[in-house]
Amino acid sequence: MTQKLISNEKSVCDLLQTIEPKGIADESMRQTVEVLLNLIEQLQLKVKGLESENQHLRDENNLFSTDSGYEQLDERKRLTRLKISELLYVLEHPELPLHNNPAELAARTMVQRRNISYATQTLEGTQARDTFMSLVATTRKLGISFFEYVRDRISQVGNIPFLGTIIREKSALNPLSWSWMPE
Questions:
Q1: Domain boundaries, position 57
Q2: With b meaning 16 or more CB within 10 Å and e meaning fewer, what string describes 14-36?
């Protein structure tokens, strides 16, 4: 039951991790919390079927607008309700990841690199470092060896297509949803 509804939504995750129905002395309050946690779990299952349940899930935001009488739970529901439009954004763009781990890993890589070398001495050095870090991340995501790519560019052999070409080819194989199409 403590699975995450949407990984990048902190208040729901906190809610599921911090509220333990067994620890509530009042029987009616415990039942209320258990019912709410079951509703959240059902909502999670519906989120997995995004395309077929789109409108139905939009109507379910009232789950977070009813008072339970349990102060800690109501506060978590209030915080979630404030972010409901952000949470439901994945319904319009189902291709978006439900978490930001890759972005956080990329930022962590930059911080580690900066800590190792302290800093660059010039603006050009900063731009060069950022360019190479971007190339490393892009080639990794595309499954291309960074060193082979750099060797191909320096030697001007042309065995490896430009990254933009590879990205366009891969995106044609896995198109984005209708919401990204030009009008």
A1: 1-69
A2: ebbeebebeebeeeeebebbeeb
